[in-house]
Design a protein that fits this description.
D-Maltodextrin-Binding Protein, domain 2, 15 helices, alpha/beta, 8-stranded mixed beta sheet
Length: 366
């Protein structure tokens, strides 16, 4: 077995897990290996490298459809380019690799999007989802009842921000609870095993817990978003290729909206990709997977789009302020970088000429 880049990067994590079990995957002392260290992200002129999250829904619906877009593949081929995808567990693993000749394109949550913009010149293409992060509890119905209890969270994430907002509404602070750092995948089991009394997470983790046990309930919710981004170096140097990829993103959403059978097929691809990545099928039943995609993406008014500014401020302004308050970004960070990232007009240009960009022509590899 080879731990290098696989022909299909969605299989990389399963292979690395097998190596770890066999004791064949090692790291230099004091230098812990990450699963994505095996990915071959050497800068190349004949590929566009895309970071995806197979277990982040509905983001994974868009990326699964784009990967099977035969129109995109043919258009890229005429330019001597192919699309490579690399699978990641979470956005905080992805954003550090955007730009610098590595990932030209990525699907990210709201906090990783801000971090990407802070790390390297980045532009935002459009919305990947709009839904809720939730505080999920067992046998509690109000946040006030969690005083002194253990709550699982992912530090610096959108769900962390939602938890803080909920605590503030309940006239509490982080000092009134015991925070337990957990990966989202660990949270449902931690709740079931009573390691925590509650946790705060984004979808699909809350839905997994609600489906798993009727005693689990979402006791507080707050809005969160996901985005598709380009490295600015890529969008500036290869605007025609960027337009092809943007068109594929729009086309994927249009195709899933066209009829239920298309969304059903996309769900099959998502489930297959997730299973290949993790080595086991998703915990949610297929109808719920589809429901998340419909509710959090296809039914979002105007998607795909860049939401309008609110009071002159770009999207993610609140998230930026949160990261600065948490010390995850310097206090003197240049806030104008956020406005510049959202000023990218590639999506508007593509949508203004649907015939040229074939936004309603569909051809997907089954």
């Amino acid at each position: 077995m080879n731990a290098g880049r696989l022909s299909n990067p969605l299989h990389a994590l399963a292979a690395l897990a097998a190596l770890a079990i066999l004791g064949l995957l090692t790291a230099a002392p004091g230098n812990a290996a990450e699963y994505y260290d095996s990915y071959d992200l050497t800068p190349r002129t004949d590929t566009v490298d895309l970071g995806v999250q197979p277990n982040a829904w509905p983001l994974a619906f868009i990326s699964a459809v784009m990967q099977r877009d035969k129109l995109l593949a043919a258009e890229l081929k005429t330019k001597g380019i192919s699309l490579r995808t690399f699978a990641f567990r979470k956005g905080n693993d992805v954003y550090k690799l955007v730009g610098n000749g590595k990932l030209e394109m990525a699907f990210l949550g709201d906090m990783p999007t801000v971090n990407a913009i802070a790390t390297t010149p980045t532009v935002v293409i459009g919305l990947g989802k709009r839904n809720f992060s939730s505080v999920v509890a067992r046998d509690y119905s109000r946040l006030e009842e969690l005083r002194g209890k253990k709550i699982g969270y992912s530090a610096g994430s959108s769900s962390h921000l939602v938890l803080l907002r909920g605590l503030e509404a309940a006239k509490m602070t982080e000092e009134d609870i015991e925070l337990v750092t957990l990966e989202p995948a660990q949270m449902p089991d931690a709740l079931e095993n009573e390691q925590v009394a509650a946790y705060s997470a984004w979808e699909p983790t809350p839905s997994m817990s609600l489906a798993r046990n009727p005693r689990n309930r979402a006791i507080y919710r707050g809005m969160s978003t996901d985005w598709l981004v380009f490295s600015r170096d890529f969008s500036d140097k290869q605007p025609e290729v960027a337009a092809l990829l943007t068109a594929s993103y729009v086309r994927a959403i249009n195709w899933m909206r066209q009829k239920s059978a298309n969304l059903d097929l996309a769900a099959d691809w998502v489930i297959a990709d997730s299973t290949a990545f993790t080595g086991k099928p998703p915990a949610l039943p297929r109808p719920k997977v589809i429901d998340i995609a419909r509710k959090d993406l296809l039914d979002v008014p105007g998607a795909p789009s860049i939401p309008a500014q609110v009071d002159g401020a770009p999207p993610l302004t609140r998230e930026l302020a949160f990261l600065k308050a948490q010390g995850r970004l310097p206090a003197d960070f240049d806030d104008s970088l956020l406005s510049k990232a959202f000023a990218y007009d590639g999506l508007k240009r593509v949508q203004a000429d649907p015939k040229r960009h074939r936004l309603y022509q569909f051809d997907y590899a089954k």
